[in-house]
Amino acid sequence: MDQLGRESEARRHLEAALERLRSAESRSEDRSRAAYYLARTYEATRDYAAAEPLYLDGLEAAYRNFGPNSYIVAFGEMNYGDLLRLLGRGVEARQKLQHALQTYTALLGPKHLSVAGAWFYLGQALAADGARSEA
Asked: How many CA atoms lie within 13 A of 74 on its CB side?
């Protein structure tokens, strides 16, 4: 929805979903996904300060419920890593993105689309830090 210029509508629905999942103490991946997608709506409008705690909230739930080498953690780390790149926090960005890449590769194999996405974001982070030869 956010790409149609309807960020407020998307936020309203995602905030309601996230609140329901939090209050139910959900252990579903949806708990983390709602936080990640809500963060993306703030990212789309360059409100990075609002996006970051949502990524952290989603990641905390994902680590707690699924462990560090789960798909839902990798998904969150890839998106949060890209936000860190935008914030100029290259070292942190690369750490998150490298972990996402390793996890995706282990779970899905090297030719999966999610692995390609992680390589893309890692390449952007490396290029932003001037490490173009590594990117």
From this structure: 21
Residue linked to tokens 């300060």:
49
Nearest C-alpha neighbor of 87 from the set 119, 50, 48, 122: 48
Q: What is the pLDDT of residues 106-133, one digit of tens each?
A: 999 999 999 999 999 999 999 998 865 5
Give dist(CA 58, CA 33) in Å, integer. Answer: 7
Structure pTM? 0.87
Considering only CA atoms, which of 115, 132, 128, 121 is closest in space to residue 89?
128
Q: Which amino acid is at 114?
A: S
Chain centroid to CA 123: 16
Please name the helix (run of DSSP H) or strand (run of DSSP E) that holds residue 3, with its range, or none: none
| Tokens coding 39 | 């963060």
Work out the mean pLDDT of the chain and round it to a whole number. 92
